[in-house]
Design goal:
Helix content: 10-25%
Strand order of the largest sheet: 20-21-23-24-25-26-27-31
Strand content: 15-25%
Structural class: alpha/beta
Number of helices: 19
Distance between the termini: 44 Å
Radius of gyration: 28 Å
Largest sheet: 8 strands, parallel, barrel
Length: 891
């Protein structure tokens, strides 16, 4: 649907108390209301509304993703899915004067029957209302709302929680049956209101050509078979892999149980304190009785992060040219340590990073995540030698950083609640529910952000702040509109206009990729740039207070929908040839170019996502700029990567199908995550990534439907002979790589860690280490597919052997270290089959224990080939023996 929606048309007058503090946890029952409120027109009381919320049972079911004749043929390539919402009431409900609000990930195309209507309010917020044919909800009887929605829903996670029921003049009530639960053994969210998928053909196929297999236990067993169990491979293995490692022959293992006796020499102890804390957490502390460990200058090189590590029986020496190098040397000791035995082999390590930019991106705007999550992430980034934290703090669904002088950004923009006028909060989205104290709301105070900056700096990590603009800016726009209304009411028009981001007369009809029609800054208003200047100055002041200059700022610049076309201000702006803009088509480029120059004038490099950056005119951009390349390799994503690197920009690879950690690990509808570019991004796939030759990945990967694809890296021209794409120029390369965690489906810190780990370890491996098996880039251009043969059998075997070592290292050593750091990493699902009445099981990370049971029986330790009677259940146990992975059934 691309019709501009007017929220006022569906607004219900609600008291501001709907957004007040209620201490309502997302997993708790709705709060009771002490005052008996009554809607005088409908007769619905607050007590009745509470009863409806407490007892109404809702079940969401995807029936089919196979399009039928009733799909809208003019929308989404004729794709649609069929779903049902079942309502079962514990009481008779005859009144029509109530509505249910909920988040529907894909817009509704049509609804079957005339009992209910479903309207989209904004974004994913939808409203169910009784319609002309409503016959009431009868006690104990189920009423079904069947509908068709755009595209497909291939995951049980698509069904957002926290439906809530409202009636005029009364407090909204969360419908208890739609609240999330938590699995006590896995710690992960469960959705009791969602009907489990059962049919891989009708429910889990993206389209008729889809060849991706549902990751059942038998599929996983087959996938894991080529990873042998060999703990010895982990003994002298360091992640990320060093440039050179030599084990001193015939030398006994060195015990670190007594600890390390540090000789800092000219190194300031504070710069390696974080690395020493991690060693202590593993069990290797500091002690005068410990092995002498000396920090010494590395005079042969000044490469950032380079170090030389020499471990002998009586001493350890770390040579480095900078603080990061000393920290990385200590990190490598921690990597070598067996956390159970606390021993290391005598080795010599010479090491330096492949890429200067080794980043991790975390989105705290869609759903907020705590400061502690960020601090814990910084610890792990330092442990695995990552050095850039891209902190995405503003988007459509939330503004997450306190800004002096603009309190509305956090007073309004940091929370979502049922205030349809958006005076006190943003509209609910992503299943946030009606109350502003939900855990998905929140922001970092100035003190919080300064603490994050200092914590990162102590770990040699740069924090890159990001407030997305000009699209993805709804939180800022609505906050400033609220500010505007407040100041106008106070009679201060000048102050009201100062930071306004939207043109009230703009009648442009557009829809963003997340279905908003009001999420784009108006780039023709000087107040927009006044706002940006103010925000950047305040963030820079926080960096200065932390002792960490702001020299890189990410403006987003991506997915800007067709805004501005009918804005009177923009029409006048273009007509007057203001700022050299002669057409509406140039407005997006003008915004990015002007903002980049604004930043450059402050000594700050501008960064943005590759799609937005591609609209700029390079001659109008500062000489230094960063672009995050998020184009899908299977869709020709190498072309924009090469084009922007060839401009001399710092191109940071951020490919979705391998570096988006909000995607599912395995192809299973119960796995968390979005899936628009990949449904199975596990650690093995990330390990296989060849970032130095993007198109060569076509030889080893398939697309989202498990189909082969071709990557043509030769010179391409359009009909006029203009070059549209070309290979990398000789000696041009990429600045680095970055992993991404977007948070639309990531509602808690535990889920965030589940999605990030252990994939962050594989990100570090590819960012730091260039493997010998990577296909060398061909600057003359080449066409890559599964028959082109550049990725030879010898290379493939070397890659496989490298994976054997990495997988055994993660299973035997690294996951236990994550347990000791209290990181809620994903415990993998096991592979398992029953052959001739005997159970055979395996796991992607050898060394983790597996359990099995017959249905309803006790869990037993798995032994290969044990006799069982089908069906049985299997699961994997975390390295420390405490948490459990998700259970799979073996038939």
């Amino acid at each position: 649907m691309k019709i501009k929606l007017v929220v006022a048309a569906v607004a219900i007058a609600m008291s501001a108390s709907a957004c007040s503090k209620k201490e309502v946890d997302e997993q708790s029952a709705p709060a009771s209301v002490s005052v008996e409120a009554t809607n005088s027109e409908t007769g619905i009381t607050q007590a009745l509304l509470n009863k409806m919320g407490e007892t109404l049972d809702i079940r969401y079911s995807v029936i089919s993703n196979v399009p039928d004749d009733n799909c809208d043929k003019d929308a989404s390539d004729g794709r649609c899915f069929l779903a049902e919402i079942d309502l079962t009431s514990a009481i008779d409900i005859d009144s029509k004067d109530w509505s249910i609000y909920y988040s529907q990930m894909r817009p509704i195309q049509s609804i079957v029957g005339d009992e209910f209507a479903i309207t989209r309010v904004q974004g994913d917020l939808h409203k169910i209302t009784p319609a002309a044919g409503f016959k009431g909800l009868k006690k104990g009887q189920t009423t079904t709302i069947q509908f068709r929605g755009e595209l497909w829903q291939l995951s049980e996670i698509d069904a957002m929680p926290n439906y809530y029921i409202v009636a005029d003049g009364l407090e909204p009530v969360i419908i208890r049956s739609t609240q999330l639960g938590v699995d006590p053994e896995t710690g992960m969210e469960v959705r009791p209101y969602v009907t489990a998928f059962t049919d891989s053909e009708t429910q889990y196929k993206r389209r008729e050509t889809d060849k991706l297999e549902w990751a059942t236990s038998s599929v996983l067993y087959k996938n894991n078979l080529d990873t042998p169990v060999n703990a010895a491979l982990a003994t002298n293995s360091i992640l990320p892999t060093p440039t050179k490692l030599a084990v001193k022959a015939d030398k006994p293992a060195v015990s670190l149980k007594p600890g390390l006796n540090l000789l800092f020499n000219d190194v300031e102890p504070s710069v390696v304190e974080a690395a020493l804390q991690r060693l202590a957490r593993i069990g290797v502390g500091q002690s005068e009785q410990g092995i002498q460990t000396e920090l010494l200058p590395l005079t042969s090189s000044t490469a950032a992060g380079q170090y030389h590590l020499d471990i002998s029986a009586d001493k350890i020496q770390i040579f480095a040219a900078d603080n990061a190098g000393f920290s990385y040397g200590l990190a490598s000791i921690a990597a070598l340590v067996d956390a159970n035995e606390l021993t290391v082999s005598p080795v010599i390590v010479s090491d330096s990073p492949r890429y200067d930019f080794r980043g991790m991106h975390v989105d705290v705007s869609r759903n907020f995540h705590s400061k502690q999550l960020i601090l814990d992430l910084l610890d792990q980034m330092a442990a695995y030698k990552l050095n850039k934290l891209h902190l995405h703090m503003a988007d459509d669904e939330g503004w997450r950083l306190e800004i002096d002088g603009l309190p509305e950004l956090t007073e309004v923009g940091s929370k979502r609640c049922h205030d349809l006028n958006e005076d006190t909060c943003l509209l609910p989205q992503l299943g946030s529910g009606p109350f502003s104290d939900a855990k998905v709301n929140g922001y970092y105070s100035k003190a919080d952000y300064i603490e994050i900056l200092k914590y990162a700096n102590a770990r040699q990590i740069q924090v890159i702040p990001s407030m997305d603009m000009p699209g993805h800016s709804r939180a800022a726009i609505k906050s400033m509109e609220s500010r505007y209304r407040k100041l106008v009411a106070q009679g201060d028009q000048q102050a009201a206009d100062q930071f306004l981001l939207s043109d009230s007369q703009d009648e442009t009809v557009y829809s963003s990729i997340q279905y908003y029609n009001d999420n784009t800054l108006n780039v023709c208003m000087e107040s927009t740039f006044t706002f940006i200047d103010k925000v950047i100055d305040e963030i820079a002041a926080m960096h200065k207070a932390a002792g960490v200059p702001l020299d890189l700022y990410h403006i987003g610049a991506d997915e800007t929908a067709g805004a501005w076309i009918e804005s009177p201000l923009c029409k006048a702006f273009v007509a007057n040839n203001d700022k050299g803009v002669t057409s509406m088509d140039e407005l997006g480029a003008y915004f990015i170019e002007r903002t980049a120059k604004l930043l450059a004038d402050k000594g700050i490099e501008a960064a943005g996502w590759s799609d937005g950056m591609s609209h700029t005119r390079p001659e109008n951009m500062p000489s230094k700029a960063q672009s995050n390349i998020w184009d899908v390799v299977a869709h020709g994503g190498h072309k924009r990567a090469h084009q922007q690197a060839n401009l001399g920009w710092h191109a940071v690879l951020s490919q979705p199908e391998v570096l988006y950690f909000d995607f599912p690990y395995e192809a299973d509808p119960k796995e968390h995550g979005y899936y628009w570019a990949s449904r199975n991004t596990n650690s093995k796939k990330i390990h296989s990534f060849m970032p130095g030759n993007l198109p060569a990945n076509a030889e080893q990967w398939t697309d989202i439907e498990n189909l082969p694809f071709e990557a043509d890296d030769t010179i391409q021209k359009d009909e006029s002979g203009k070059v549209t794409s070309s290979p990398l120029k000789q000696s041009i390369g990429f600045a680095g790589i970055q992993g991404q965690l977007w948070s639309e489906t990531v509602r808690s810190d535990d889920v965030a860690e589940y999605m990030m780990y252990p994939r962050v370890l594989m990100l570090a491996e590819r960012a730091w280490h260039k493997p010998e098996w990577e296909v060398a880039y061909q600057y003359q251009g080449a066409v890559y597919n599964q028959q082109s043969g550049f990725f030879t059998q010898e290379m493939r075997q070397a890659q496989a052997e490298d994976w054997y070592r990495v997988a055994n290292t993660v299973g035997a050593k690294e996951l236990l270290k994550l347990d000791k750091a209290d990181i809620a990493y994903r415990v993998p699902t096991p592979g398992a089959v029953i052959k001739d009445g005997k159970l055979f099981a395996n796991v992607i990370f050898p060394g983790l224990d597996i359990e099995y049971r017959t249905t309803g029986g006790d869990w037993l330790a798995y032994k290969e080939g044990i006799e069982v009677t089908a069906p049985v259940e299997v699961r994997v146990i975390a390295a420390d023996g405490k948490r459990k992975g998700r259970t799979l059934v073996v038939k």
